[in-house]
Amino acid sequence: MPARLGGAVVRNRIRRRLRVAYRLVKPEVPCGWHLVVVARAGSRGLEVEELTHVLRELVRRARGSEGNGHETGRDGRQGGGDC
User: Fold this and answer.
1) How many angstroms separate the CA atoms of 36 and 42, rounded?
2) What is the pLDDT of residue 69?
3) How many Å apart are CA 60 and CA 65, to the nearest integer?
4) How does pLDDT run across 27-53, given as a tens digit for each residue?
5) In this structure, what DSSP letter does residue 7 have?
6) Contacts with 17 (C-beta within 8 Å, 6 or more apart), sequence order
7) Strand extents, DSSP E, 1-83
8) How would DSSP label each residue in 59-81?
9) pLDDT at 11 over 50
């Protein structure tokens, strides 16, 4: 988390909100995917609901660019649950 986002309190707040947002979106992430999230200055004012919406939209767009969006993990399951 870059220091230019703010002090430690602000960075930790963003980090906590991103973790909660990811937990809510995790079941929609295909097995085997790794996400890298880079917080930008605009993320300072976002609430968990907004971050969740943004993450969900990004995962949806990424799935669409992967082909038919129905890829499966190594075990043949769809979705990101507990891979």
Assistant:
1) 17
2) 47
3) 9
4) 999 999 999 998 888 888 899 999 999
5) S
6) 46, 47, 48, 51
7) none
8) HHHHHHHTSSS----TTS--SST
9) yes
Residues 6+ apart with CB under 8 A from 64: none
Give residues with Cβ within 8 angstroms of 5, minimum separation 6.
Answer: 11, 14, 39, 41, 43, 44
Answer whether 27's CB lies under 8 Å from 80's CB.
yes
* Token pair of 14 as six digits: 């963003």
Residue with the two structure tokens 């767009």: 61
Burial tier of 3 (Cβ tally within 10 Å: 0-12, 13-18, 19+): exposed
Q: Which residues contact 25 (CB under 8 A, 6 or more apart)?
A: 52, 55, 56, 59
